[in-house]
UniProtKB/TrEMBL annotation:
Superkingdom field: Bacteria
Domain TfoX N-terminal as annotated: residue spans: 12-99
InterPro entries: TfoX-like, TfoX-like_gammaprotbact, TfoX_C, TfoX_N
Record protein name field: TfoX/Sxy family DNA transformation protein
Length: 201
């Protein structure tokens, strides 16, 4: 019964698809999940677009109980709102769908970025980094500029222009390399010494 009530609300916001998720049924639009139906409860995916309203309504978060732990995920119980079939439920579902789509698009954009697309970077730098084992943007951001520079020095020699280190740091911070201030530069040099790949005075 509750499932049918939710479908009535959700179809006002467009077509939907379903898939087994978290021991229940995930509700999708264009392959992006925005709601979950589980054990007679209906949960809506959170996003900054919709979370303030969900918090104001004191909706509880969904808890996924595992064998040895309980995982709280960003889905909020809106069962009572759906049962009332209120306009508010439709509004919340629309916001959740839009938020889920924004999250999905942001994720896709991030995964498609290339090293050469970052600030201060170019094809030559990208090739150097890949040869040094930094294959993609995610790895670069995780390891950091000093690690990447030290690895490049290990491969290409220790006479690499120091400006490359500032450029890598700017790429991580999303700024032009000339904006890297002296305290930050000293920190980067210290990190390079820590990695032990370069002999810096």
């Amino acid at each position: 019964m509750k499932r049918q009530l939710f479908y009535k609300v959700a179809t006002q916001c467009g077509s939907l698809q379903t898939r087994s998720m978290f021991g229940g049924t995930g509700i999708f639009q264009n392959n992006v999940m925005y709601a979950l139906i589980r054990e007679q409860s209906i949960y809506l995916r959170s996003h900054p677009l919709v979370e303030p309203k969900l918090a104001e309504l004191a909706c509880e978060k969904f808890k996924h109980i595992k064998k040895s732990s309980v995982a709280t995920v960003n889905y909020y119980d809106i069962t009572e709102l759906v049962e009332e079939q209120s306009d508010l439920a439709v509004e919340l579902v629309k916001l959740a769908i839009e938020g889920a789509k924004q999250d999905d698009e942001a994720k896709r954009c991030k995964s498609k970025r290339r090293l050469r697309d970052l600030p201060n970077m170019q094809l030559t730098t990208e090739r150097m980094m890949k040869k040094a084992g930094i294959e993609n943007v995610d790895t670069f951001l995780e390891k950091g500029a000093s690690y990447a520079f030290a690895r490049i020095c290990e491969i290409y020699g220790r006479d690499i222009d120091m400006r490359l280190l500032w450029k890598l740091a700017g790429a991580v911070d999303g700024i032009h390399w000339e904006l890297i201030q002296e305290p930050k530069r000293q920190q980067l040099l210290q990190e390079c010494r820590h990695f032990g790949f370069v002999a810096l005075q």
